[in-house]
Amino acid sequence: MATSWVNSAERIGSDVHLELTGPGGRRAALIRALREAVRSGRLAPGTRLPPYRSLAADLGVARNTVADAYAELVAEGWLTARQGSGTRVAERAEPLRPAARVPRQAPPRARGPRHDLMQGTPDASSFPRTAWLASYRRALQQAPNEVFGPGDPAGRVELREALTEYLARARGVRTEPGRIVICSGFAHALRLLFGGGVLRGPLAVEAYGLGFHREVLAAAGVRTVPLPLDEHGARVDRLGRERAVLLTPAHQFPTGGPLHPARRAAVIDWARARGGLVLEDDYDGEFRYDRKPVGAVQGLDPEHVIHIGSVSKSLSPAVRLGWMVLPERHVDAVLAVKGDREAWASVLDQLSLADFVVSGAYDRHVRRMRQRYRGRRDRLVAALAEHAPHIEATGIAAGLHAVLRLPPCTEASTVKAAAWQGIALDGLAAFRHPDTDMAAGDGLVVGYATPSEHAYGPALEALCRALPPP
């Protein structure tokens, strides 16, 4: 039952609406209604309430019901009653006035570190916007109408032809367009190969590597078996009954250094003898500074190596394009997993990258960035020599990161000290396979490619402050 009362303006100067609802009888309902009117601000502090006789008459309830309700609210502190002044809303009552509605705003983004020395990303400010835009315009203008329909799961033939020439010239890869399948990056390649059932585990991997890749493989039900590392790279002589091995032979990630030539030959012999496969992660093969170029392992035996690359380091991770150079026997299986049409890599971006490569803009960009990153590497080494000569930088002949070797038992505290300095970076232990008994020692993995030019100097100063004393 609901009973409404609207008091007359002559009695208390303002109207108020009460709803008498809920259990407990009219007395309890009146108490709840008056509390809510005060709490919501409809009855402001100091407002005079009508005499209980008048309110009882308006509500059609007994006078004692209103008198008892007033008395209880006075006892609770909601109302005050004085002789000659009547019953009023207590001045100390603080109603919860309804807040003005404002548009909902997204929560503020967490403030990032002042200095980003994480590995794995290039200098975002160096993206060749003008040259890429020119390639995009040419690609769009020259694109046949079929481009705007469903995409070929293998990828646009223009890009596969461009990559055939480029990879042969720059990385020593032996292939043809029909054996290249475009994907959106290395992790996507792993998902296609293992998540789609083209390959099965267990898979041998290097004892130190990207945990994200191990997570992708674990999600596909693949068990990974760690191979120890030494100064010559992965110990491929420890390969067991696995049918495939994942390596970073041009520049071991993250410790640095190429796979020794004898071990490159040995892993090919192993693959041939077992009918196995080598998965070659060529993540930063274009960037070398103090050594001769190291070609792709795929060039030794195209039928026993899957060569996987992308533009995430050389150009930008925002350009979601990568490639698999496959043995002929695996091409159809990978295409079957991808489906009837391209669902991952933008066809227009594929055409733009094809033009970017064919026009020579990609080579020019890589040469320019190789020079810039070498300068970054040299500045890091010089800063260590001046401020922390007891800290050695290793793995610096190539790539976009260095490993700073730390005194024993100092890695965790140094990572914390770096965080206090506002630096984002990883300790070497973060890349260790959980099942390996190999320990590469204490170290920091410092990405010197990530900061912009103006931010790199302050980042180095902060890094040197965070390093442990001799």
Structure description:
Helix content is 38%, strand content 15%. The protein has 470 residues and is α/β, with parallel strands linked by helices. A 7-stranded mixed β-sheet has the order 6-14-13-12-11-7-8, sandwiched between helices. It starts with a strand and ends with a helix. The N terminus is likely disordered.
How many beta-strand runs? 19
| Portion in beta strands | 5-15%
- Proportion of residues in helical segments: 25-40%
Low-confidence region ranges? 1-14, 93-100
The strand line-up of the biggest sheet is 6-14-13-12-11-7-8
Categorize the overall geometry.
elongated
Question: Structural class from helices and strands?
Answer: alpha/beta
Query: Roughly what is the average pLDDT, rounded to an integer?
Result: 88
Question: Cα-atom Rg, whole angstroms?
Answer: 35 Å
Structure in a nutshell:
This protein is of the alpha/beta class and 470 residues long. The chain has helices spanning 9-12, 25-40, 52-59, 63-76, 129-142, 157-171, 186-195, 211-219, 261-274, 328-338, 347-358, 361-387, 411-420, 453-466, and strands at residues 3-6, 17-20, 79-82, 86-89, 115-116, 180-183, 203-206, 224-227, 229-230, 233-234, 244-247, 277-281, 305-310, 322-325, 392-394, 401-405, 423-424, 426-427, 443-447.
